[in-house]
Design brief:
Blueprint (H helix, E strand, L loop, with lengths): L5 H9 L16 E6 L4 E8 L4 H16 L6 E10 L14 E8 L7 H14 L4 E5 L7 H4 L10 E2 L3 E2 L2 E3 L2 E5 L14 H13 L6 E7 L6 H9 L4 E6 L3 H16 L4 E6 L4 E2 L6 E2 L6 H8 L4 E4 L4 H8 L4 H4 L4 H18 L11 E5 L2
């Protein structure tokens, strides 16, 4: 049998360009092995640097076909996996034990669906193969527990009377001030107390080998945001906005704040971009059109995705089973997973934190 050209194999692999990073697999350093044996059998191992379970099947099929077309190849075996690295936060602030990357989900104002986005983003990252936690830093209006279906009054376990064990909610590791106080306790606290409570929740929770910790920030640009920006190694921020002008104005303030404290803005999620009628399916941009694109362009960041204003999103989240777990194959869940891959891919281009915990590897077989 004619010997298979290694160069031809590599050329075949290079035909595939990553849809989120725009590079071929060699440019990404994703090709871990590519071998042909004397019988014409080709084996390759691909390792993408971001959560990518949803595209692993398509990648495997495309590579199998491309390699199968190389002269002399009799059979092809493609293994697809992912390796998520720890990336640097701002000003070399010390890492949080058990956490590789911290992503802040923020908005300039309330009512734009920030918490709904944070919960579904966390679940989507998990669906794409990552280990994910979520921290509810919205002390005055904690809602993550209800959105994740954690029963009211359930309390986290503690260790040594000092550390919280995060709650398990749909596979996420979660903690919130709502788990520590009752829903009927108003937080009549001044700024320093609130900031201290957030830091305590973050640092005294026993996070277990997370690839990503999503922090659901309070709306606005106040004390908590400033404390987190100064004391927490945030690897990137996601800004949630709606298309209307007043929300965009506040969204811009959020971007400016993160830029000032040297936290990279990974992109903008435009929520409620169109209203979809639950009776006839008609789409209408109630809050205006193209706002997310404009803000992303103005600040040289990415429009991560646009989500519709749809009754099922609210009903599922209020019912404790957000869209990504309630209807994993729906169009809304598909959009959240696409946003999750974009966030992970964007983060993978940042400087790595070599002092952080070792990177995790997961192999996805199809």
């Amino acid at each position: 049998m004619a010997q298979i050209s290694q160069q031809a194999l590599e050329t075949a692999v290079k035909q595939y360009r990553d849809p989120y990073l725009g590079k071929d697999l060699y440019e990404l350093g994703a090709v871990k092995s590519l071998k042909a044996d004397d019988s014409g059998s080709v084996t390759t191992m691909i390792e993408l640097p971001y959560p990518s379970k949803g595209i692993a099947g398509a990648l495997k099929e495309l590579l199998t076909n491309a390699l199968g077309d190389v002269e002399g190849v009799a059979s092809v075996e493609v293994h697809v996996g992912q390796r998520i690295y720890s990336h640097k936060g701002q000003k070399d602030i010390q890492s949080v034990p058990g956490v590789k990357n911290i992503i802040a989900v923020a908005s300039g104002k309330g009512g734009v669906g920030k918490s709904t986005t944070a919960v579904n983003l966390a679940l989507a990252l998990q669906a794409e193969g990552a280990r994910v936690g979520i921290l509810d830093a919205d002390i005055y209006g904690p809602s993550i527990g209800m959105m994740l279906g954690v029963p009211e009054g359930k309390r986290p376990d503690t260790r040594e009377n000092k550390y919280f064990v995060p709650m398990d909610a749909h596979g996420l590791q979660a903690n919130s001030m709502a788990f520590v106080v009752t829903d009927k306790t108003p937080m009549v606290w001044r700024g320093p107390m609130v900031s201290g409570a957030v830091m305590q929740l973050l640092q005294q929770t026993l996070w277990n080998e997370l690839d990503y910790l999503i922090i659901d920030m309070p709306p606005g640009t106040g004390d908590i945001q400033l404390t987190i920006a100064q004391k927490v190694p945030v690897t990137g921020a996601v800004i949630v906005t709606t298309p209307q002008d007043i929300a965009l104005l506040d969204g811009k303030k959020g971007i400016e704040m993160f830029r000032k404290v040297e936290i990279p803005v990974l992109g903008v999620v435009e929520n409620m971009s169109v209203h979809i009628c639950s009776n006839c399916g008609h789409e209408e941009p109630l809050f205006g059109h193209g706002g997310g694109e404009r803000i992303a362009e103005e600040y040289d960041t990415t429009l991560l995705g646009q989500l519709p204003l749809h009754m099922t999103i609210r009903e599922q989240t209020d019912g404790g089973t957000p869209s990504v777990v309630a209807e994993p194959d729906s169009e809304v869940a598909r959009r959240y997973k696409d946003i999750a891959r974009r966030v992970g891919a964007e983060l993978s281009t940042r400087e790595r934190n070599l002092t952080g915990s070792i990177s995790s590897v997961s192999v996805t077989e199809h």
